[in-house]
Amino acid sequence: MLEYKGLKIEWLGHACFKIKDDFVVYIDPFKIKKDRADVILITHEHFDHCSLEDIEKIWHEGTKIIASTQCKDILKPGWDVKFMRPGDKITVKGLAVEAVPAYNIGKKFHPKADEKLGYVVEVDGVRIYHAGDTDLIPEMSSLKNIDIALLPVGGTYTMNAEEAAKAASTIKPKIAIPMHYGSIVGSREDAEKFKSLVKTRVEFG
User: Which residue in 80, 129, 138, 184 is deepest, having the highest Cβ count within 10 Å?
Assistant: First the structure.
């Protein structure tokens, strides 16, 4: 677990993170334990990111869900959901959320036209970028003042370690955390390789 300026940021495997301040935020919950989330962010509809089973483990009355539009047919009616597209912004429970593009270049898994998402979230002045399932894309150069970047390194469906290292060089976060490895695709070796290529501070479990 990383502690940064009062925030606790924990990688729970694959693309899932838990961010804890005065409230609890989950991003792409997958194969997690039962808990209570105040806010849940879902990047896109694929089963390892929009897992109904895992969302139900952390949902309670009052939970706010923010998701890409492809998740409409998966999430339960009656849940408090805000569907977002790239460029949309919302503030909920003190958490400022900006939806940003996430897509593949030269791969078929995450077309740009689908409008799958990454997120920039800001809480207590700390800006965290969760890249979602993406390749190294031009829009990353527009990201500013990122404290912590959560970047996929597993390859196949996303960036590999080398591409993620280039993304880190472009974004220039204070801390980078590799993700999207060790479950479906990729291994700890990808995270280690990413760390060896990145000049900025890298943290991972």
Answer: 129
